[in-house]
Amino acid sequence: MELQLAIDLVNTEEAIQLVKEVEDHIDIVEIGTPVVINEGLGAVKAMKEAFPNLKVLADLKIMDAAGYEVMKASEAGADMITILGAAEDASIQGAVDEAKKQNKKILVDMIAVKDIESRAKELDELGVDYICVHTGYDLQAAGKNSFEDLKAIKRVVKNAKTAVAGGIKLETINEVVEAQPDLVIVGGGITGQDDKKGTAAKIQELIKQN
Ligand SMILES: O=C([C@H](O)CO)[C@H](O)[C@H](O)COP(=O)(O)O
């Protein structure tokens, strides 16, 4: 089980400072969608240059022109790129094919997908690397989480790795770990804490026991 730190609400310089604090306790650093919107793929490039030993995920949440966008993110140094599960199969296939060419990984974000189980099965057959259930900020505000969705995809996904994101904190990590995802994504649960390093270390310890 791996830990991904999601960085969303800061600029590139602040993101790099954040990662310096917790780099020993994470496997993957995510350049979040708001950062990419604000600063472009330069943020991905700067992060990879600052931390060549960490995997960098570009959270582009691709919806179309997938092959091209995966190619550009790869050129910027991303090791993993996200596409939305709601995208057309042709887009998913384009992303998968380009990622294979570039030796990168595709993570599908299932945000807003209604029939999680059926879509996860289809995506698995299309050859994506990770399928991630995700409660975005706007539904987190309404008290939702993705723990049941994680159990649902675990029932049907045979080849891809499974991941979970959205409002995960030290207080809820045990429930997440019990469902045995391959990847746990934590943003505000680490970046919003006074003791970021200590919190990341505790989350990492609980994750690595599994
Ligand atoms: O993908 C995300 C969100 O849509 C904003 O871009 C976050 O990175 C993801 O939700 C993880 O962050 P937390 O919910 O703060 O853990």
From TrEMBL:
Gene: hxlA
Molecular function terms, GO-annotated: hexulose-6-phosphate synthase activity
Catalytically driven reaction(s): D-ribulose 5-phosphate + formaldehyde = D-arabino-hex-3-ulose 6-phosphate
Top class in the EC scheme: lyase
Pathway membership: One-carbon metabolism; formaldehyde assimilation via RuMP pathway; D-fructose 6-phosphate from D-ribulose 5-phosphate and formaldehyde: step 1/2
UniProt organism field: Fictibacillus fluitans
Stored Pfam families: OMPdecase
Domain Orotidine 5'-phosphate decarboxylase: 2-203
Keyword presence, Lyase: yes
Record family assignment: Belongs to the HPS/KGPDC family. HPS subfamily.
Enzyme Commission number: 4.1.2.43
Domain of life: Bacteria
Record's protein name: 3-hexulose-6-phosphate synthase
InterPro entries referenced in this protein's UniProt entry, alphabetically: 3-hexulose-6-phosphate_synth, Aldolase_TIM, HPS/KGPDC, OMPdeCOase_dom, RibuloseP-bd_barrel
Keyword match Lyase: yes
Keywords: Carbohydrate metabolism, Lyase, One-carbon metabolism
